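Format notes (please read before filing issues)

Several people have asked whether sequences and structure tokens are stored in separate files. They are not. Every record keeps both together, in the order shown below: the sequence lines, then the token lines. Line labels are part of the format and must not be stripped during preprocessing.
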Amino acid sequence: MSINNLTRLGLTLAFSGALAAMSFTSHAQHGQDVSAPHKAAAQQDKQDKQDKQEQKDEKKAAKEHQQQQHRLSQQQQQERIRQQKQLLAEYNHRIAEQQAIALRNAQELERQKRLAHYRYQQAYYEQLRQQQARLADDRYDYDNDPYYYTPPTYQYRRGDHYYQTNQYGAEQLRRASNTGYQKGYEAGRADKQDNWRFDYRDSFAYQDANYGFDGRYVQQDDYNYYFREGFQRGYEDGYYGRRTYGTNTNGSDSLLGTVLNLILNLQPLK
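Then the structure lines:
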């Protein structure tokens, strides 16, 4: 091979090596450019999650601190518990009396051949019996129930008087109204099936108004009042087969939110 040929071969190999080196460098740089944004995004996402968790922890700590600041004194808490136990004893006595009335009422329904309302009445009586059994076996942990150390946050009016309660009492009033609507709807539908006249006041459930009440958080008179408010509207809907005041969600009857708010008219304390 001539010297010129060797020279040309050497130049060709050198040029090829240079191209390969440039190609490798280009690929390496290209890979670095692609991965860098992904790494930065992952780090930013991690930082965002950490910031959100810190904000969540700060809010939780602030809420707990606020609750501690607004917590009732130990003396106030124990006085509320004492009153509750006294009211619970009175309610236990009352519900025992109501069971006897329920049985007599059921006999009258049977005599009147109001079979649909008779079955409804029997189910209602069974619930009262279960409620009294739970009251008789009361092992409630009052000290750790937040209702007894949480100050009032709402005001409501019943008749000519104003009352105050906290969020736990407010929820009990909502439950009373919705339970009343549910039992009223069933009673109205039963009377319609029996071809009986429209008369929600004639129903023992309306007169008793203790269905679902565990004796806590609100006075019995309060529960009875709001139960009857819901019952009256539920009875009308059930009797006429409509949903003017309530709705049925997943098989459960309850008042419409607007109707419930109108009945309770809970006002936050400033």
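For reference, the curators noted about this record: The chain has a mean pLDDT of 83. The chain has one domain: 73-268.
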